[in-house]
């Protein structure tokens, strides 16, 4: 009996070893490389042919004394787009090096779609989707941010719920600064007044005074003169505007909720994909279109560890058969967990997904025309003497 079983057992063992070797080979095919690229910064490149994925990670120690997080608008305005590489190169200067740069918010024509804060100044109001904010000492927070801008007069009169540099309709009031361009753009009927910003070039996240000037001549599209702003009233608020006269002083007060930190930089995206260390793809809460969470695309994400010490920036390539297929938001959330995130946020993806390390594009953007010009970027900057 033993002699009859021996060939069978031998054959079985051989087959098992073949299967095991194939399995081990498949496992070994996932190639991971890591290298330091700056103080406290590690670039991780993952090629997984079994899953058909190209994954690019920048892990940043936010406690490093030489590291600062910054945000940048394309051409430093809301009117135009620029590649992530161009923004990175433009912001690299004497005494500081852009270690990493990644595309950030979705964009409406040329402007970022949601909340945009650049070094303590509000460039554009929120839209109700999640974003990521940083304090001046690099503490991150992912949340659905909401800004409130109120203009109050010495006599107690108040104009509530203004927006900053957003399209105006009949039912809102919008303050336009020079970041928005030369004009307010075409809009519904209404009226506007010129504003003297009292020496401010941008809208700081603190109270400051502005002075009402003359009524603008056009009802729909108004020129924004250099050094001036335009306060534009929708048709539903003309009764408020008619009470303002030239020389009238208003104090602008700005707050952003949640207010658990002093925001210094912020970019938007959406949806949130990790909450408290668990997969939580919140497309329905934030109003993204149906099915967006299940589609496989190139993706960009940002997240941080539970102690908020480590920032993780990820780009996953896609739309390139045989190399990288892209991921849905649940797969993206799983990858962010794998790389140590406790909270994570999806950013703009598709052809926009671009990661730059030390002024070199390290992933393979999917657009056939090359890296896509985008509206803004998130930067990791080193103030150390050299980028490794």
Provide structural commentary.
The chain has 388 residues and is mainly beta. The chain has 2 domains: 31-144 and 260-382, no CATH class; 148-257, no CATH class. Helix content is 14%, strand content 38%. The protein has an 8-stranded antiparallel beta sheet with strand order 1-2-3-24-23-25-21-22, with helices on one face. Strand 1 and strand 2 (41-48) form a beta hairpin. It is elongated. Residues 12-26 have low confidence and may be disordered.
Summary tags:
5 helices, mainly beta, 388 residues, 7-stranded mixed β-barrel, 14% helix, 28 strands, elongated, 8-stranded antiparallel sheet
Short description:
The chain has helices spanning 2-28, 84-91, 238-241, 283-286, 329-338; strands spanning 31-38, 41-48, 53-61, 67-73, 97-103, 107-108, 111-112, 116-118, 121-124, 130-134, 140-144, 146-152, 158-164, 173-176, 190-196, 203-204, 208-215, 229-234, 249-257, 265-268, 272-275, 278-279, 299-304, 310-316, 343-346, 355-357, 360-361, 376-382.
């Amino acid at each position: 009996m033993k002699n009859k079983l021996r060939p069978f057992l031998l054959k079985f063992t051989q087959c098992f070893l073949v299967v095991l070797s194939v399995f081990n080979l498949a496992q070994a095919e996932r190639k991971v490389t890591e290298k330091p690229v700056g103080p406290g910064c590690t670039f991780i490149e993952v090629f997984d042919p079994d899953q058909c994925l190209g994954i690019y990670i920048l892990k940043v120690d936010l406690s490093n004394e030489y590291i600062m997080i910054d945000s940048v608008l394309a051409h430093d305005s809301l009117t135009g787009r620029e590649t992530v590489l161009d923004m990175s190169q433009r912001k690299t200067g004497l005494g500081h090096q852009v270690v990493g740069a990644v595309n950030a918010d979705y964009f409406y024509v040329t402007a970022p779609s949601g909340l945009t804060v650049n070094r303590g100044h509000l460039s554009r109001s929120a839209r109700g989707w999640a974003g990521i904010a940083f304090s001046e000492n690099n503490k991150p927070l992912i949340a659905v941010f909401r800004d409130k801008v109120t203009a109050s007069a010495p006599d107690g009169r108040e104009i509530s719920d203004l927006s900053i540099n957003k399209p105006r309709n009949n039912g809102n009031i919008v303050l336009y600064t020079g970041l928005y361009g030369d004009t307010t753009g075409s809009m519904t009927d209404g009226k506007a007044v010129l504003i003297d910003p009292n020496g401010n070039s941008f809208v700081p996240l603190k109270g400051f005074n502005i002075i009402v000037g003359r009524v603008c001549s056009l009802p729909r599209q108004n020129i924004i003169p250099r050094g001036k702003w335009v306060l534009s009233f929708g048709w539903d608020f003309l009764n408020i505007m008619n009470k303002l006269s030239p020389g009238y002083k208003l104090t602008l007060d700005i707050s952003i909720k949640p207010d658990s930190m002093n925001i210094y930089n912020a970019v938007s995206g959406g949806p949130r994909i990790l909450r408290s260390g668990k997969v939580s793809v919140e497309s329905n809460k934030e109003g993204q279109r149906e099915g967006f969470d299940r589609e496989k695309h190139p993706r960009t994400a940002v997240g941080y560890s539970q102690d908020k010490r480590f920032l993780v920036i990820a780009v996953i390539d896609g739309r390139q058969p045989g190399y990288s297929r892209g991921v849905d938001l649940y797969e993206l959330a799983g990858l962010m967990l794998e790389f140590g995130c406790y909270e994570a946020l999806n950013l703009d993806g598709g052809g926009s997904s671009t990661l730059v390390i030390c002024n070199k594009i390290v992933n393979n953007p999917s657009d056939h025309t090359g890296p896509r010009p985008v509206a803004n970027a998130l930067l990791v900057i080193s103030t150390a003497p050299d980028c490794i």
